[in-house]
Amino acid sequence: LPSDPVILLAVTALLEARLHQLFANPNLDPLVSGYPPAATRPADLVQLTRANELAVASQSLDATLHHWQTGEAITAHDWVEALYTEVLPTAKQLGIGCFIAPIRRVLRDGNEAQRWLHHYATTQNVATVIRQGIADTLAIESALDGQLCDALVTA
Q1: Mean pLDDT throughout 68-77?
Q2: Can you tell me the distance from the alpha carbon of 84 to that of 17, in angstroms, rounded to the nearest whole number?
Q3: DSSP string, 26-70
């Protein structure tokens, strides 16, 4: 999970909007429709999910996944970007469109794991990467604490 609460909120809002879409259109449920044959779909989807999760665990947004609807290869980055585009109208209707906007920053700049790996590649020092991650998290939390507390005091 991301340590940045704003990114965590963005992911949560993205999933909430997708759930609203699923409730409105059951065909978005992989168990209802998708490329695996209906007879073996549940087991095939479990296998597909495991393979996709392993790929993402090692390659993050650069991982090549297989889409449950078509079986076609797609990078995690492109899949998240497509999902963002698909749910944005619903998120706006729900009044949470602004909350998913940070997903664009993650797609542009990489996620936390990717940034840490890049930092490690340049420093070759795990302790330096961890210290920087802690400092970054503290800075984010301090900034949010000031903003949230100020908003609550003036409300």
Answers
A1: 94
A2: 10
A3: GGGSTTTSSSS-TTTHHHHHHHHHHHHHHHHHHHGGG-EEE-TTT
- The amino acid sitting at 71 is G
Report the alpha-carbon distance of residue 45 to residue 19 in Å, rounded.
19
> Any idea which residue has 């090692």 for tokens?
58
How far lies 45's CA from each of 40, 115, 133, in Å? 8, 30, 35
Say if CB 48 and CB 36 are below 8 A apart: yes
Q: How far is CA 150 from CA 4, 9, 56, 142, 144, in A?
A: 19, 20, 38, 12, 10
For the chain, what percent of residues have pLDDT higher than 90?
66
In the chain, the amino acid numbered 119 is H
Mean pLDDT, rounded, of the chain: 90
Nearest Cα to 4, choosing from 123, 115, 153, 83?
115
First vs last Cα of the chain: how many Å apart?
Answer: 31
Among 109, 106, 138, 133, which Cα is nearest to 119's?
Answer: 133
The per-residue b/e assignment along 58-68, b for 16 or more CB within 10 angstroms, e otherwise, is: eebbebebebb
